[in-house]
Amino acid sequence: MNKEIQPINVGDITIRPDQNVMMAGPCAIESEDQMNVIAHAVVKMGAEIIRGGAFKPRTNPDAFQGLGEEGLRYIFEAGRELGVPVVTEVMNEGQIELIKKAADGHPFIFQVGSRNAQNYDLLSILGKTGIPVLLKRGKGSNIQEMIGAAQYVMSGGSPVLMCERGIVSFNSGDPDKAAGRFTPDHLAVLRFQEEGFITIFDPSHAAGRKDHVVPLALSGVAIGANGLIVEVHHDASNALCDGKQAIDFSQFQQLMTRARAIEQIVKGDI
Ligand code: PEP
Ligand code: MN
């Protein structure tokens, strides 16, 4: 028996089982101007939640690690100005208070990155905040492991949005040589939903390159995901993180138009 999916409230937005909510923004917050320009553009085009990382889990310690508290200030300023909730990554316990302080009552979602999908201490602590958690799939985590991870959060009371962002497979790797940076697992979306989770689809980290992002995102809408989280940049070639997979504003506009059309078909309205 499938479990009923409970809607999740974030400020004025309710993320519902029968809808596809759009979350968009840069991978990393790089400056006040960058965050503002991108946030304004995506919200104008229909994004309902803005994304951006102030704390970045980089594979290389010499890579840009994020602006930290300064970055949080920029994304929450943009969120407040535009009247939209924020989703931003938390990597450790100490960052929880920093994010809450920057939010200062503004609605937001904690993002737990793929690398922390098995950080049970962090998951348990986040569960006690009462704030929704976007739990990204561990790149090597199976369905049962993800359900277990989500239970660590939910046992404290916070709601979980599951996020399919692709897994490591024999087809994944360099997106110019392999089939994606990670392999998107569409059926996992259906399985997580059967288990009662609002499930978000992330085409950006699976694709790893911008020309594959829009088609892959649309496939996520088509399978019936409850939302997309997409990386967008106004100047991707100079982005400090994940520029290769960041779509530009015209691609995002195209995605919005087509995603809404596919959503109608999925809902059975046309
Ligand atoms: C991100 O959202 O920018 C990110 C680092 O994602 P993931 O944890 O899925 O790799
Ligand atoms: Mn990223």
Number of helices: 9
* CATH superfamily (homologous) name: Aldolase class I
| CATH architectural designation | Alpha-Beta Barrel
The average pLDDT score comes to 98
Task: Enter the CATH topology name.
Answer: TIM Barrel
Beta strand % = 15-25%
Shape: globular
Radius of gyration: 17 Å
Q: What is the CATH domain class?
A: Alpha Beta
Distance between the termini: 28 Å
Topology as a string of helices (H) and strands (E): EEEHEHEHEHEHEHEHHEH
Low-confidence parts, pLDDT < 50 over ≥5 residues? Answer: none
Count of spatially separate domains: 1
Order the strands across the largest sheet as they lie in space: 3-4-5-6-7-8-9-10
Your description of this structure?
The protein is α/β, with parallel strands linked by helices. The protein has nine helices and ten strands. Strand 4, helix 2 and strand 5 form a beta-alpha-beta unit. Helix 1 packs parallel to helix 2 (about 70-80) and helix 2 runs parallel beside helix 3. The protein has a single domain (about 10-265), classed as Alpha-Beta Barrel (TIM Barrel), CATH 3.20.20.70. The strands form two sheets. The chain has an eight-stranded parallel barrel with strand order 3-4-5-6-7-8-9-10, surrounded by six helices. It has a two-stranded antiparallel ribbon with strand order 1-2. The model has no long low-confidence stretch (mean pLDDT about 100). It is globular. The structure holds phosphoenolpyruvate and manganese (II) ion. Phosphoenolpyruvate binds near residues 53, 57, 113 and 205.
